[in-house]
Amino acid sequence: MTNKLILIDGNSIAYRAFFALPLLNNDKGVHTNAVYGFTTMLLKILEEENPTHMLVAFDAGKTTFRHKTYEAYKGGRQKTPPELSEQLPILRELLDAFNISHYELPLYEADDIIGTLARKGEQANWEVKVISGDRDLLQLVSERVTVALTKKGITNVETYTPEYMKEKMEISPEQVIDLKALMGDSSDNIPGVPGVGEKTAVKLLKQFTTLENVFANVQEVSGKKLKEKLETHQEDAFMSKELVTIHVDTPIETTIEQIGYQGYDVMKLNQLFRDLGFHSLINRIEGEEDKKQVEDTLPDLHVTIVDQVEESMLANHTALVIEMLGENYHEASIVGISIAHDKGVYFIPADVALQSSVLKQWLEDEKQKKMVFDAKKATVLMKRHGIDIKGIDFDLLIASYLINPAESHHDIPSISHRLGETSIRYDEEVYGKGAKLQVPEQDALSDHIARKAHIVNKLKQTVVQQLKDNDQWELYHDLELPLTLILADMEHTGVSVDVDRLKGMGEGLQKRLAQIQQNIYELAGETFNLNSPKQLGPILFEKLQLPVIKKTKTGYSTSADVLEQLEDKHPIISEILLYRQLGKLQSTYIEGLLKVVDDTGKIHTRFNQALTQTGRLSSTEPNLQNIPIRLEEGRKIRQAFIPSQKGWKLFAADYSQIELRVLAHIANDEKLIQAFNDHEDIHTKTAMDVFHVEKDQVTDQMRRQAKAVNFGIVYGISDFGLSQSLGITRKEAKTFIDRYLQSYPGVQTYMDDIVQDAKQKGYVTTLMNRRRYLPDITSRNFNRRSFAERTAMNTPIQGTAADIIKKAMIDLYYTLAEEQLEARMLLQVHDELIIEAPEHELDTLKELVANVMEQTVSLHVPLVVDYAFGDTWYDAK
DNA sequence: CTGCGCACGC
DNA sequence: GACGTACGTGCGCAGT
């Protein structure tokens, strides 16, 4: 077997990774994106290439021997961003853990080290592969040396052999240098011959083969201008050649034999990945038996496995973890319960726990305080088993989310590791994932779950202190914690669904879909998979020759906005649009909902209270926050949502323009406040102010545009986003936004101030002190910075609206209880609450619900709530 | 199993 | 000039 040598251009790959990936942070605030990208690439190479020898070359410093030839070499190049520089030492640490040699040499560039070693490998008859993002390296390609260049992203590469180069670039590896010498390279400040680009350079080299030959026969060059340019800049060209030529005789101290690759250090790598927060990469490290070593390194925790719950095991202020397998706590079963307090840690197997009246009594005792992770999950799980858990006064999940919603993993092990408590493994390591998900044998299970309870107990103080330091204690204690119990109630109650009605709609849709599909196949002249944009594209844009409006990464775009522009060009288009619309209803809403109805005809969604960056809730399995309403056809889905009891109605109450009212309040804009106090139609008012016209002069078109601008303000979209939604140019969109801000100077001031504030503090807050960190607000990358700026303007608006409706839910929940009404909340859809109630309570509710919602906070503008009721959700409009 | 294109809501 | 652009969830497809 021949040896295989892999040579990596360290700086180039780190650069690529840095710009290809979002600026990730680990829990210590260190940027890790370049290291992460580098790591994925290394893992891929090791998995795919099986190298016997390997080395990563780095540039040694700013000055190189090339600067002697040409002082301005690489002049004008942007300084390496500090966010990247700080990652380079980590990168070296990473390579050490991988046991991969790395090397740098004063005055030489990584290219030269690679070139030298590549030639040595070649002479030894080894297989050599060079990996870089720099096309200059292509000059090294030969029969034994291939060069892989990164394409988009970081793990995608394009591998060049001599044949592939001929085919793709029409030149040979030797000619790469001459090509560069003619073209120059602005990023390295290499002059080349002005006016000669890639096309001309290739043409010249095809004709004359080498640079020397071009100048030797310059008289034969066609084109007077070109000839002149070549003659004037001959010297530049030859100097450029010198600059781009990679040195293959660099005086390096290492030999290729010394850089053998023997495999990585599993322990070191594991530890490093954990430190860096690369949890997803840990299971790509090979060696199952080595995993055991990590296991063994966890400090012992003494756990008592309980076969009968005794009162002596239970105490006030106890951490409680109820563990289940899988995500959906409406159907999953409990695998075990652990409790931890200052006197001990216990594991109670599921069957023991559920049969114990001692435990039940303790769980239901309000005075016995419990600390948990995810109170909602624990509450719903216990409700399903007839236990009404009370006395939860700490929820680690909610606390962690409030401290930093941007953390992507709010599970006990992740939070624990972030806070420096590493004596627990990740769920994925214990349970596996996907199809391999399973409960381990009891010792491992009880140990893991017990550790969770132990950690909840241990971390409580730290987390509470963080909340207090952030001035978020009230947000946590008076808003999110009560809310989570209310949500548990709503989820457990569920919404009733008229299954027959859904099925009926499904049958009707099925017939129509079949017919439309038939029509489309006839219009297309062939059958294909209509649900595949990849197959639809060629039919529309090649076979039917329709104009291409937009492309996606993988082919033609066939999205609705594209198709709408083609609607009058071919009858097939409107059929496709209809097919898509109905197909969506069928698959997502009819079939999707039917799949999750339980045997009592109810649907139980799960509200995720610890996910969105703004403080809103989200809803899953099913998502009941995106049931169709805009188009009549879809809206009919709502007819399938019904009250759970005969003689009851659904009652829906929604805030009118809550975000714009919040904006008026936060920005304290006189005109906007006035508009709401006068109960004006806000979009018409905006149109009057933006277009400087009187009310009776506002056209539908103007109102529509004003509405889109308001929408943009509320959602923090860019001029680009606004231009898309209005079908106008970016410039026009920008004009609209500017005129809006001129009309509402208070808003303008708010926008300026909040961005400044965010820059200074690093985060923005809402009315109730919800936080969102915006590390990108000081980024030198325009896109990242702009996005962060829009987020700074938008999050306080959306987040405050979220705060308000959450508070309203709490107020309403307790008011309904106090008034001893049977009415109960079922759903929340961001600015709207869905309630079910017996008919005789409706008159009370009309007064009470709107009142509670409107009075929950007091702003500089009134909050206005509209409501409606009916026999189905559809009718509550 | 994952990423993509698409579509639904606020 | 920056080439990607509110927040979410879920579906089917296609490639691994």
TrEMBL record:
Q: Which residues form the 3'-5' exonuclease domain?
A: 302-468
Kindly provide the name given to this protein in its UniProt entry. DNA polymerase I
- Specify the DNA-directed DNA polymerase family A palm domain's residue ranges: 634-841
Quote the PANTHER family the UniProt record gives: DNA POLYMERASE I, DNA POLYMERASE NU
Q: Outline the subunit composition.
A: Single-chain monomer with multiple functions.
Q: Does the keyword Nuclease apply?
A: yes
Reaction(s) the record says it catalyses: DNA(n) + a 2'-deoxyribonucleoside 5'-triphosphate = DNA(n+1) + diphosphate
Q: What is its EC number?
A: 2.7.7.7
**Which top-level enzyme class is recorded in the Swiss-Prot or TrEMBL entry?**
transferase
Under the heading SMART domains, the entry gives:
35EXOc (SM00474), 53EXOc (SM00475), HhH2 (SM00279), POLAc (SM00482)
Q: Tell me which UniProt keywords the record has, alphabetically.
A: DNA damage, DNA repair, DNA replication, DNA-binding, DNA-directed DNA polymerase, Exonuclease, Hydrolase, Nuclease, Nucleotidyltransferase, Transferase
Instruction: List each copy of the 5'-3' exonuclease domain by range.
Output: 3-262
| Sample GO molecular function, one term | DNA-directed DNA polymerase activity
The record's gene field reads polA
Entry superkingdom: Bacteria
Q: Which Pfam families match?
A: 5_3_exonuc, 5_3_exonuc_N, DNA_pol_A, DNA_polI_exo1
What SUPFAM superfamilies does its record include? 5' to 3' exonuclease, C-terminal subdomain, DNA/RNA polymerases, PIN domain-like, Ribonuclease H-like
Q: Which family does it belong to?
A: Belongs to the DNA polymerase type-A family.
For this entry, list what GO says about its biological process: DNA-templated DNA replication; double-strand break repair
